């Protein structure tokens, strides 16, 4: 039996490896020239980093952790308590950090009690006045940008509170991958028949399936689609109403990453936050390796629109913003920027205001015996995670094989 997997991200690799194990003949079609999807590696300053995903979450129950260790991936403890936040005038005070703990507790409580159909922004607006008065609007906005925009890659005004209440609570801490997921991806891709440079435009399904790319046509008994929801693929016939409704009940976020390598580290902690409203890189994380002191910054949701298209100018502006940390404008030895939003890729899925929080479970159900979907958007347990995506690939492959 021949199956086609569309996309060589973690969901696609999990599906293809499972199908191989179950005795199927598998072809993987991938638009890019390397496997990994939104976590595929690139080279910056002579080292590999991942374009998107950077952490393994919930390490006590993460299916990718033993595979990462087997592959020899560099893993570093992620200490979210080791952070320093800077206003344009200098670091926050101890009193500010105490207030931040109160802000986080209030935000979590208010989000948990808010009914579905409510925007996250309206929840914040309902209680933020006291914090604005205490430490200024810009500092309140920083915490919202870090806790919401960066966490979910979405604009709080567009995101339903249902997004913050999804999934299982990760068990255990997180691990940061300073050199990215490259070794793990290569291990998972080893032995698979992956056709790179194949962008799928159409899938005809019913009595078997035909997958059409820009240059080729592939026949198979069934197809598993693992690419993000906003990748344009035409389905013939149209998807069933419940699947089409589920796809429109989820939206895709926007994110970008910046890597800055310096001759010497100048930051006082493993996480650096900048509250300045015009700075898109809200938080920086220390991803240094031997001889390469490096900061990795994120811009997500609303902040993506603040990033220019001239990489040199963006890097220069980022260094100038970091002057509040170093005392002088630091000079980057090398830099690189990854824009998920401009590379036919988005970040992670979320429930927009009024969206259906059960959409993920609907998307995870195969359509007959010939078509299934996988990826973080179909994970009810671990949405917006690499291991969630990987598990959905395995589940989709097993479901199709059982059906046949």
Summarize the structure in short.
With 404 residues, this protein is an alpha/beta fold. The chain contains twelve helices and 23 strands. Helix 1 runs parallel beside helix 12 (386-403) and helix 5 packs across helix 6.
Report low-confidence residues grouped into runs of 5 or more. none
* Total beta strand runs: 23
Helix content: 25-40%
Name the CATH class of the largest domain: Alpha Beta
Structure report:
The structure is a single chain. By secondary structure, this protein is α/β, with parallel strands linked by helices. It is built from 12 helices and 23 strands. The strands form 6 sheets. A 7-stranded mixed β-sheet has the order 8-7-18-19-20-17-21. It has a 5-stranded parallel β-sheet with strand order 10-2-1-14-23, covered by helices on one side. Strands 13-12-11-15 form a 4-stranded mixed β-sheet, with no helix packed on it. The longest helix is centred in the N-terminal third of the chain and has 20 residues, at 94-113.
């Amino acid at each position: 039996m021949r199956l086609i997997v569309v996309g060589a991200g973690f969901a696609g690799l999990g599906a293809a490896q499972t199908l191989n194990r179950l005795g199927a003949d598998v072809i993987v079609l991938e638009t890019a020239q390397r496997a990994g999807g939104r976590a595929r590696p690139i080279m910056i300053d002579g080292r590999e980093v991942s374009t998107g995903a950077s952490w393994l979450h919930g390490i006590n129950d993460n299916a990718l952790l033993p595979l990462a260790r087997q592959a020899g991936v560099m893993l570093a403890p992620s200490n979210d308590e080791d952070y320093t936040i800077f206003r344009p005038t200098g670091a926050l005070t101890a009193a500010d950090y105490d207030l931040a703990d109160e802000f986080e507790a209030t935000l979590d409580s208010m989000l948990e009690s808010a009914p579905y159909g409510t925007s996250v922004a309206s929840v914040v607006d309902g209680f933020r006045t006291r914090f604005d008065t205490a430490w200024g609007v810009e500092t309140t906005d920083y915490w919202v940008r870090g806790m919401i925009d960066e966490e979910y890659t979405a604009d709080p005004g567009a995101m339903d509170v249902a997004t913050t209440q999804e999934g299982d609570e990760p068990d255990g801490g997180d691990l940061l991958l300073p050199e990215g997921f490259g070794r793990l991806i290569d291990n998972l891709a080893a032995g698979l028949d992956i056709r790179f440079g194949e962008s799928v435009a159409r899938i005809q399904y019913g009595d078997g399936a035909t997958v059409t790319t820009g240059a080729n046509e592939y026949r198979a008994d069934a197809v598993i689609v693992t690419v993000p929801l906003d990748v344009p693929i035409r389905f013939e016939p149209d998807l069933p109403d419940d699947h089409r409704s589920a796809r429109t009940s989820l939206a895709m976020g926007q994110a970008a990453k910046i890597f800055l390598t310096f001759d010497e580290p100048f930051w006082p902690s493993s996480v650096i936050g900048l509250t300045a409203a015009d700075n898109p890189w809200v938080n920086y994380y220390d991803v240094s390796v031997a001889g390469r002191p490096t900061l990795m910054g994120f811009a997500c949701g609303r902040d993506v629109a603040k990033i220019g298209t001239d990489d040199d100018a963006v890097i220069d502006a980022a260094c100038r913003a970091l002057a509040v940390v170093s005392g002088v404008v630091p000079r980057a030895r090398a830099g690189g920027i990854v824009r998920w939003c401009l590379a036919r890729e988005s970040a992670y899925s979320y429930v927009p205001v009024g969206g259906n929080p059960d959409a993920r479970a609907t998307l995870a159900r195969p359509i007959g015996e010939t078509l299934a979907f996988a990826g973080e958007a179909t994970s009810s347990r671990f949405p917006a995670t690499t291991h969630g995506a990987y598990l959905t690939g395995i589940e989709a492959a097993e479901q199709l094989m059982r059906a046949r």
